[in-house]
Amino acid sequence: MREAVRARYAAAAEAVAEGGRAADVEAGASAPAPACGCGCSSGGECCSAPAPVDVSSGGQCCSAPAQVSVSPDLHYSAEEVGQLPGNAVRASLGCGNPTALAELRPGEVVLDLGSGGGIDVLLSARRVGPTGFAYGLDMTDEMLALAERNAAEQGAVNVRFLKGTIEEVPLADRSVDVVISNCVINLSNDKGRVLREAFRVLRPDGRLAVSDIVVQGELPPEVRHDLEMWVGCVAGALKEDQYRTLLADAGFVGIEVGVTRDLTAERLAGSAPGPSASLPTADTGSGRVVSAFVRAVKPAGLTPVGT
Question: Which helix (H) or strand (E) holds 124?
Fold first, then answer.
């Protein structure tokens, strides 16, 4: 499973490097999609960025001008996107904006689990300012290389990208103030361990702020066991009560889980591009796939939970 996810995101990074968008690479694809004709395919990433984002950064996409036109589905404001390298925007595969959700403050240290092309790391670095710091953790060499290039282009000095898995974070206990993640935890085979690791590296009173895919009801077994649906952020998604239980078991308090978009309803209605349009077309039965925010706090005065 992990290798399938790694291959998918390596192909996405290569697509961006060649002037395309990460969202145009179908789950399981090994070659980048063309930069033009920027629609989402039915087999693609369920939590991908929307189609109408025109960015020029050292190269032209469909001969577009050096400008970013922002779709509401991108989850970021025009001001935020305008501060970023074009390839950081094109590499976005998230389902929310955890940097806003986290309410970051100057001087804080942030860790992004599954940082991809670095969009949330770069935005976090701006929010925490020169006295703060932002780490990005990713297991894919191609994404790490892309993120490093994006950071260099932006001139960000308070960032560092780490290679590793979100189940085994290469940082010390109590070393960060905030852990964020954007549509990545659903891809893990051991989500309990991911949340325990987040708890471990957080300082007392530290915050977890995650955008992720959540399931309401039950998905059919054939969906849960489908590799493409897993890589597409659906098959591995937790139910809300499962998320709450795993967070509490890890030691978190102040747990909040709230739905931001009903992707199943949007897909069935054919009402919008973006995540809902690229939701895999398999029958999800009575289950509904939604994007959600997840927030929690590490209490003060507690020892880290072991892994």
Answer: helix 119-128
| Cβ proximity of 212 and 242 under 8 Å | no
The answer as to whether 303 is a domain residue is no
User: Residues with Cβ < 8 Å from 39, sequence gap 6 or more?
Assistant: 51, 273, 277
Query: Could you tell me the pTM of the whole model?
Result: 0.80
Q: Is the model's pLDDT at 267 over the cut of 80?
A: no
Q: Is residue 306 part of a domain?
A: no
CA 113, CA 182: separation in Å to the nearest integer? 8
pLDDT category, 272, cuts 50, 70, 90? Answer: very low
Quick one: tokens of 126? 């701006």
CATH of the domain at 101: 3.40.50.150
Higher-confidence position of 24 and 29: 24
Residue pair 112/121 in contact (Cβ under 8 Å)? The answer is yes
Contact criterion met (CB below 8 Å) for 271 and 165: no
| 3-state SS assignment for residue 258 | strand
The answer to whether residue 24 is domain-embedded is: yes
Tell me 136's DSSP state: E
Closest CA to 283 of 225, 226, 220, 232: 220
Domain count, the chain: 1
Calpha distance 75→205 (Å, rounded): 27
| Closest of 179, 129, 120, 165 to residue 147, by C-alpha | 120
Q: Are strands 253-262 and 288-297 parallel, antiparallel or unpaired?
A: antiparallel
- Structural domain of residue 47, as residue ranges? 2-297
Task: Identify whether 162 is part of a domain.
Answer: yes
pLDDT tens-place string over residues 39-96? 222 333 334 433 333 333 333 333 233 333 334 455 788 888 888 888 898 888 888 8
Q: Extract the tokens encoding 192.
A: 């309990």
Identify the residue with better confidence: 257 or 275: 257
Q: How far is CA 95 from the centre of its chain?
A: 7
